[in-house]
Predict the structure.
Amino acid sequence: MTAPLIELQGVERRFGGLKAVDGVSFTMAPGEIVGLIGPNGAGKTTLINTITGVHPATAGTIRFEGRDITRLKPHAIARLGVARTFQIVQPFPEMTVLENVAAGALFAGRAPTMAAAEAAALGQLEFTGLAALAGKRAATLTLAQRKRLELAKSLAMRPRLLMLDEVNAGLNPSEIDEALDIIKRISASGVTILVVEHLMKVVLSISQRIVVLHHGQLIAEGEPRAVLADKAVIEAYLGTRYAGLIAGGAT
Ligand SMILES: Nc1ncnc2c1ncn2[C@@H]1O[C@H](COP(=O)(O)OP(=O)(O)OP(=O)(O)O)[C@@H](O)[C@H]1O
Ligand SMILES: [Mg+2]
């Protein structure tokens, strides 16, 4: 069996009296796409913040390529090859699209100077179909373009593990198809991907495995269709969503 790329053991993140992430253990193999689902407030974004060191674990261990990263600072974790997109897209509004992507490369230590970072960033803009917008101020982009900018920024960090926090939220069906195409191409380039997603069609179309959080706890994990048929998962989360999917609904 291949060694896991990332391994979480009993990971907990408390905010005061609230355990936003509560004893979560799972692994991801290199090259996998894993869907992370669960109701609002389940702890999905917090788990990403914990893995990236923004809100460090208050208990438990996170290993990346066998190395304990639990207490490392965000920039050190980024340098090892862990990147994420933000659920609330937050580009530097007055900087150009190109400069925003270059900033991602600088943060992760992937370029020695801004000029070198911008040269590399052009490649990420081509990959995500944003090259024509390179010189535009980020503030002028549409939501779909800003979501893509998030992807380009995270790619500039040259991740081994990429965590996508609702990159499809608010997009229309054709924009979602385009985003899925980009995600599949990122996966094909060898990047391991954790996808946080509320759209079940999207989760099913790209995940090789699904992990379900509820009140911070992992309540199910495994092959996508089996997980979505799990009674505890339906009760905690899916209910009407899954019924809608079976009936061909959109959610
Ligand atoms: N910085 C913080 N300080 C205090 N509480 C927080 C903080 N971040 C998150 N929480 C709380 O932790 C819990 C989990 O929130 P989180 O944002 O991780 O959920 P989520 O699964 O990403 O939800 P959604 O699907 O709505 O994005 C919530 O109760 C939230 O209010
Ligand atoms: Mg969230």
The two ends are 36 Å apart (CA to CA). Residues 15, 18, 20, 38, 40-46, 87 surround adenosine-5'-triphosphate (ligand 1) (CB under 6 Å).
